[in-house]
Amino acid sequence: MKIINTCDIIKSVFADGFDMTVWRKYAGEISKELPSKCENDAKEYDFKKDVLPVLEAALNADKIDFVSKSFQIVVDTLNANLSKLFDAEPDINIILYLGLCNGAGWATTLDGKNTVLLGVEKIIELDWGDETNMRALILHEIGHLWHKMNGHLYIPDFTKRRKAIQQLYQEGVAMVCEHILCGDNDFYHQDKDGWLDWCCENETEIKREYLRRIEAKISVQDFFGDWCSYNGYSDVGYFLGCRFIEHLMKSYSLKDIASMNYKRLDQYFSDYANTVIEQLKPEEYHKCSNIWNMRSQPLADKWLDEIKSGNRLVFIYKINGEFIGEGALVFDVGDPDYTIPDKRIYVSRMIVKKEYRGRGIGSEILEFLISKAKTMGYSEMTIGVDKDNVNALHLYNKYGFDKVLFDGRDEQGEYFKLMKRI
Q1: Do 144 and 242 fall within a single domain?
Q2: Residue 361: band (very low, low, confident or very high) from pLDDT cuts 50, 70, 90
């Protein structure tokens, strides 16, 4: 891995301001390919209006030094993190340079070598010069290169639909790689002023709107780029892409996903976008109870009464309107049959239709229930599971349900009661 920091050169050669002839010479000394590569990429811009003001604002010694210092801190500790994704140190270049507003980060090829280009002018414009943002930027672009080295980064035969799927796919894989490398699955450098909370709360709306635009052949540019926004929030596509890839990872490895073809990705995204977990209304309960074959009518009636009273929340997992799975929460009731104290929330039922098992749906429902309990202010969750239900035990253990609160029997047989701090 080769690290190139040109900040000192930038301060020296552009001390009197920006000049295109000087810039071409400076860029050509980094790589003979770089000047034409940047200029071709910037052809769509109005240079005097869109590019030059950003360059002139960036040619500030203090700002450049600040970016340079953060860059050096991040790259000095980079190898310790790369082993989480790469079997050996990757053969890549990381270059901090002055571009033509070609992007704060650009995963590309330069002189036949995989390269991360970091544009000082865009980093300064976006105020991403601190260590946190610099680390996120570098790890994200390395994620793109990992994708390229381990699968198919590009989808051929571009159509508007293919381009939209590819952009979501590329940024989603890179975001997941960034999370792996930084060790934090909830980290998004865009998370300011409630950005992440808003994305999580509106995930269903976001994915459905993205699919609607794909099917209507409408641009999805609002979802990407700091200069665009969807409902007032920029870069929502990075969140959506990450959630889509995380959804696939419940059934596939990241390397398998990195090699998926367009046809599969398109179908998987359509299924994902048409998937919804929503609270069951009392008047819809008969649809659910009929599907799951309730053991007795009195039990079904008891559950319906609890739903109406608000002591039982039932959440339905649906794909294209079809009931696929269910998760139910009981809370604030201190159920003496299960020795549940007040203020502990209990997962009373979680089931997935047989033909849909093995697709990660159970994981998604459980994650939703845990998240719901957190937002309701609970710090513990309890769940019951039959002792011989190996798959369910494996799932619950995976999500941290490992403290046995109770070991006994009911009319269905022997079971465990597990607890998790949330």
Answers
A1: no
A2: confident
Residues 248 and 299 placed together within one structural domain of the fold:
no
Count of H-run helices and E-run strands, the chain: 18, 11
Q: Give the residue among 136, 127, 71 at the shortest CA–CA distance from 97.
A: 71
At 353 the pLDDT is 83
In contact, 404 and 417? CB cutoff 8 Å: yes
Q: Which residues are CB-contacts of 402 (< 8 A; sequence separation ≥ 6)?
A: 396, 418, 420
Structure-token match 């937002």, residue found:
375
Read off the amino acid at residue 182.
C
295/407 same-domain check: yes
Residue after which a domain boundary falls, among 215, 249, 272: 272
Q: Are residues 176 and 298 in the same domain?
A: no
- Residue 339 pLDDT grade (very low, low, confident, very high; cuts 50, 70, 90): very low
Q: Is the dihedral of CA 124, 127, 131, 136 positive or negative?
A: negative
CA separation, residue 252 to residues 155, 246, 255, 257, 360 (Å):
19, 10, 8, 6, 9
Tokens of 422: 């949330």
Q: Residue type at 348?
A: S
3: confidence class by pLDDT, cuts 50, 70, 90:
very high
Spatial CA neighbour of 96 closest among 143, 30, 1:
30
Largest CA distance in the chain: 84
This prediction has a pTM of 0.80
Q: Give CA–CA dist 340/100, Å, rounded.
A: 63
Q: What is the DSSP letter of 230?
A: B
Give residue 354's domain range: 275-421
- Terminal-residue alpha carbon distance, the chain: 40
What is the DSSP secondary structure assignment for residue 376, as one 8-state letter?
Answer: T
In a 13 Å sphere around the CA of 332, the CA atoms on its Cβ side amount to: 10
Would you give the distance in Å from CA 312 to the centre of its chain?
31
